[in-house]
Amino acid sequence: MKILLVNKFLYPNGGSETYIFQLGEELQRRGHEVQYFGMEHAGRIVGNRAERYTADMDFHKGKLQKLLYPFKIIYSFEAKRKMGEVLRDMNPDVVHLNNINFQLTPSVICAVRSYEKKTGRRVRIVYTAHDYQWVCPNHMMRIPSTGKICFACRDGHFGACSKNRCIHNSRIKSLLGTIEAKFYARQKTYGMVDVIICPSEFMKRQLDTNPLLAEKTVMLRNFVERAAEDEARGNAGTKETADYVLYFGRFSEEKGIGTLLDACQALPEIPFVFAGTGPLEEQVNQVKNVQNRGFVTGDALHRLIAGARFSVYPSEWYENCPFSVMESQIHGTPVLVSDLGGAPELVQAGRTGELFRGGDVEELTAHIKELWEDPERCGKYRENCRDINFDTVSAYCDKIVRKVYT
Fold it and tell me: What are the strands, taking DSSP E only, across 280-338?
């Protein structure tokens, strides 16, 4: 089978990229032909035989980029043209879309259907929903200026995006987001896909509010790999732990970092370790009982996760299926997770971790204090993590090839 994986970033940048790289490697291992389409970038690690990519765009930098912004995010003729060249060279059976909005735009969907008409070949289009872009122009269902959760655009009336300045707190960018959402809704572009993979039940419920998408959605959780040393032991629950509480991920407002830092300051006797980067890094570095390890990956991250007494995931937006929550438990470390979005679906509350009300600093502080002072409870949670059965990439690949690609 020939599979074209499409994502705007073709270098390590976040969860979407982790997903496509690991999935692509497993598909290739099984003998499938896999190529990639997205933006050119100095850090690009995958590609396509035709060597066709869109120009690298960063809308946060440079006067020229900001000037071109309105003409690029709604419909990219460049992406459609270059995608067409890749399609004609590869002749794929499946085009698997991931993070495409803004830099690539849904014009790539039109490119596939245009290719079909010209060649007479049938191509299956699959989309993995890593965020809520197809029902919310700012993709988060959250008003950035207030931090409030919002469902206003979910019914197809996208004017709230402009009203609330939901994209970068900019009236112009938010207006463009509204225009883009209305344009593709009228064109019924998203209805051209064959299958939409939703990595959480919560995500599926949101997309199912759009009748055009409801019949196409399937729930299939993300995959996660147990570290090799864990697999050999088969006993993550008996690991020795260090004396710290761990947060790993992006240091940003929507991730609940501000709330978590308030809890850290209220618990000066408890040591915290943070691993990551982001716009709130300066605030992280100012809290005395927080040790910032910076961006950590690979075996070093696995050891950091496995060594924590428990980890905290305090996100204040509707997370989809966060790898961090899965990785924590698969390494035998209990999790304390906010009750928003799809993240709570990953936790067996009272067995492998606990939930708290997202954004509630007092409740978060109380949960951290109780868990820290009850190592026996943490130990039981740790033992229960041994029974976690999240799909490996191999098991996930079995399902996606059998149930989605064919």
Answer: 290-292, 310-313, 335-338
